[in-house]
Batch of 2 targets.
Target 1
Amino acid sequence: MKKIIVTGGAGFIGSNLLNYLVPLQPDTLFINLDNLTYAANLHSLKGIEGAPNYKFEKTDISNPEAVAETFRRYGPDCVIHLAAESHVDRSIADPDAFMRTNIMGTFYLLEACRAHWKKDGDNLFHHVSTDEVYGSLGENGLFTEETRYDPSSPYSAAKAASDHIVKAYNRTYGLPIKLSNCSNNYGPRQFPEKLIPLMILNALEGKPLPIYGKGTNVRDWLYVLDHCEAIWLVVQKGRVGETYNIGGNSEKKNIDVVRSICKVLSEETGKPLAALEGLITYVADRPGHDLRYAIDASKISGELGWRPKETFESGLRKTIRWYLENNEWIEKVKTGEYRKWIAKNYGDRS
Ligand code: NAD
Ligand code: TYD
């Protein structure tokens, strides 16, 4: 039986990936390696936790002995690496864990692969990364796989470092690696510190919708299941040593995203649109706030035939319906730690 370690499988993208892959690939054992930080939610894995081809392993990737022990126990053929500290604002407030997990954690995983995998074996380390490593675009242009790295935040700088280390292990040791760098994901099971779920939950509770700066920063929005399909395609059919950019073809200004959320929420719940839009509040900008991200996905679409299935409109409606229907999941994440973060981040901005 093929064995794949998915790191960060209790987080947003990892849990969606496992919910997609575990039933799809019954002859592969998926080992979810995650140390359950604030961003993890085991409730996201309820649908697959009893599956015979799924195992959960609580391991901290920034602990090299623990990583080596998990590798010894399972002897994985492949690693799909998603575990990371992932929130830009937290990286500005407290960068320490970002360096430990995103840089050193990636390094320890690569070392474990190097120690366990034979040269010319049928193995793969797939590194999931972000378009934020490329820094900010101006009004025009798109990120390609050739765009120079120019990260702005401690988060994106740490992810950039991890990308370079992954590529170095390929060039120096011949480790079989692939990378994918994607734009902003949204969809079910996303922790409500990120723009879209934060706005949905705040709007439902009648709380302010805090927009950084003027709300004119642009992000390209990728529905999480489109991203999961792209990752699996690259793992199976992408060329070893290559990077693939993945984007949703959905560039939006933040203010337009928030207005769309208000509109769909109003349609889905019957709450008056004017009351929801009245919650929009402009707050102090994020330091080093990148103006615009946008992806040229022609490499993955040309080589592998991938295209996003969702438009922003269809994906946003699915996302909002999911949050309206999954109150139990929402209650699990609203811990004391969550409330502390909200008070700290938004208390300082107003
Ligand atoms: P997330 O914050 O929702 O989840 C991260 C997961 O990693 C959590 O389950 C957490 O417990 C785990 N983790 C953190 N530190 C760990 C450690 N030291 N050891 C083991 N596990 C640890 O993140 P996400 O949004 O699902 O992102 C997943 C990956 O995709 C990240 O590498 C991120 O950089 C990348 N990415 C995310 C986006 C996005 O929009 N969310 C966009 C581009 C790239
Ligand atoms: P975020 O979801 O944190 O993703 P990233 O910083 O990785 O792009 O933020 C998306 C955009 O929304 C970004 O331009 C910052 C902005 N934003 C707000 O305006 N208000 C908020 O409360 C948050 C969390 C983000």
Target 2
Amino acid sequence: MAITILGIESSCDDTSAAVIRDGLLLSNVIASQKVHEEYGGVVPELASRAHQQNIVPVVDTALSRAGISKEDLTAIAFTRGPGLMGSLLVGTSFAKGLSLGLRIPMVDVNHLHGHVLAHFIRRADGDRVPEYPFLCLLISGGNSQLILVRNYNDMEILGHTIDDAAGEAFDKCAKVMGLPYPGGPHIDRLAAEGDPKAFKFAKPHLPGLDYSFSGLKTSFLYTLRDNLKTDPDFIEHHRADLAASLQHTIISILMDKLDKAVKLTGVRTVAIGGGVSANSGVRDAVARYCAERGLNAFIPERTFTTDNAAMVAIAGYYKYLDKDFCAYSSVPYARVTI
Ligand code: KG4
């Protein structure tokens, strides 16, 4: 009998539901919350209220786009953490209610596992997926991690950020440039028109595989401060060059450690995931790096880089196959690592 999983994602500010049948994606619906834009960041209380409004129509749409009814579901996978507690509570409670009502099992998913396992989402039988072990560079608004993935349930963090995440570096620098939240996509767009060598920003000298982005952020701020003294329209005049140089430095920091990890582990497959993996420069740099060394590169579709329920459904599918179910007594967790 077919195994049909409904995935639910509500960890931050996207309400999403997806249906996966026997590992193949049937639907993936994402309702993004615009309400946070005017505040320059996600407001947790507004996020949970919006999730409450969105979750029923989003799940309904995911089921109808998949061409199934809720009685066809085999199990429900949901993001249990990490994320915003109020947001997670909405998805978790909804999953519990639906699971109880339909008398089908629930599977809890670590959001970070979801980002890594997004590479296993297939639309058709022939679609290529990574072979284990592989290295995953997980870069989002809250995380920057280098993960050795031995299996869907066996992941080891080789390095992580000791301060800001790569996404935060994009977003915070974009904010001081007066760009809307989240700034990452705006920097990406502007960078295409600028000179990546126009400005030189600080890069960290950390041993090992850990990342740091706060020095870069400070050096970016100092560049603005120093230049604004003589040119009050400095940001306006150099928008594209600032964006291109910032992006160039972030990519260079990411790639240095990725290269180190590839050499250390000897893996032949490299994947990227998380919101920042939507960045054109990051995607090009990883693709080029792998092509030059004969490594297999896995660059996710842009829809699967930011928060989505398809990745939750696929992670849940593998756990379901292992009968790794979740109890009704389980509660969300705000913080957790791989
Ligand atoms: O994985 P994600 O959706 O969730 C969080 O961890 O919050 O990642 C969001 C992050 C934000 O920092 C956003 O600016 C960044 O991903 N991002 C990008 C791009 N698209 C999203 N950063 C750089 N370039 C992009 N094209």
